[in-house]
Amino acid sequence: MSVPGPDLIYGVAGLGMFGLGLHHAMTAAAPLRRVLALKICAIGASFLLIVAAWRVAPGAIDAVPHALVITGIVVMVSAMAVALALIRRIRALQDGEDTQPGHTQAGDTQPGHTRNREGRQ
Amino acid sequence: MSGIDPMLPFDVALALALVALSWAVLAAADRFAMVVLFIVLGLMVALAWVRLGAPDVALAEAAIGAGVTGALLLATLRHLRGPEAAPAPGPVRWSVAALVAGVTVALGAVVVAVATAPRPEGLAGPVRDNLPASGVEHAVTAVLLNFRAHDTLMEVVVLLIAVIVVWAVDRGLAAAHDPAAGPEADGLGPVQAGYARLALPAAVVLGIYLLWAGAHAPGGAFQAGAVLSAVGIMAVLAGRWRPEAHHRAWARAVFGLGAAVFVLVALGVGLGPGVAYEYPPHLAKPLILAIEAAVTLSIAATLAALFFGREPAPVSRSRGRRP
């Protein structure tokens, strides 16, 4: 093969996204940044599946990896929604704005614990 | 491959843009810029998947991965103020970078091997051979709703679990942050209302079309559900409709509808002549369309509810519990 096809080009791009996402997911401290890094890592992994399903002839493209990636996209948005809800709630607890601080938190006896600025998003 | 593909410069430029945008998202100093760049990245990814012959995945990524996810991120941004936590210290970053580089290079060898070697046919042949018995003419829909229906049922259940968890977790948020509080609270005005009047009917038609088209062309329940969820989000943001506490019972019923219809059809087929999920060919198309219609409604309601976050009720029963 003298000229790289779309599979090789986008395969390398997906690989780059996977590596970038994985690196930031492991090193970023801000939760929102970490969640986005995981999503980019997941997109990179999806690229590998779609590239593996690609064929030069349009009729020979494998539909099963496509269905798997669609499933992955829907599962990812579910996981993302839960992660974002946790980020919102943690932030509300840190800011002392939560309406249900819970039983073990005892925010009124240890205000410094819930208002700890070090763990901020 | 003989000759040079005229799309080659486009592919190279798009691939470079994908990596550059990913880097820009992760390096953006401002959270709002980060989210906007991420939405742009999602649309570019959809474009790349069209180039790789995966229009269904491209539709799902544009509607769910970029659209709904972007809306979720923007709704969360309003809760986040102030400086971010600093990233991990240098030595940790460098050792992680070395680890990630190793994993990526190993995967890269696999990618190059896959892209340059002659390909095995994979599952394309079996899917093509069994397509006439699946009840639909579009391979991806046949895989999702028939050949691998159990996976898809589990996916619908994951969405259901997500909305249960989000409603439980968001219960502690103050009502002031509620994006469903209506246009007055959000400062939205007549522009949104006018846009909604024009766009909502078109989006409803588009969603139903995507659902119907899934039987023979790219489209299907997930893409249609995402478009219809955008209708719900827009209707609330424009003040056309407001979720109230007494809607919760209906909302719960719609969240569970897709999984319930899916399970009932599987059980009905399993108790009758065949095995669960093996629809009889002459009934396959109506059964698949019934499942898809129910799943579309559930996905639309669930994704919209995930955007609103907090369930539509003032949670006051625990407020008086503590002094």
Automatic annotation (TrEMBL), chain B:
It holds the Pfam family MbhE. It is found in: Cell membrane. The chain crosses the membrane at residues 6-25, 32-51, 57-75, 96-117, 153-174, 195-215, 221-241, 253-275, 287-309. Its main location: membrane. Coiled coil: none annotated. It is a multi-pass membrane protein. Residues 195-283 form the Na+/H+ antiporter MnhB subunit-related protein domain. Residues 17-81 form the MrpA C-terminal/MbhD domain. GO terms for cellular component: plasma membrane. Residues 96-182 form the MrpA C-terminal/MbhE domain. Keywords: Cell membrane, Membrane, Transmembrane, Transmembrane helix. Belongs to the CPA3 antiporters (TC 2.A.63) subunit B family. This is Multisubunit sodium/proton antiporter, MrpB subunit. It comes from Rhodobaculum claviforme.
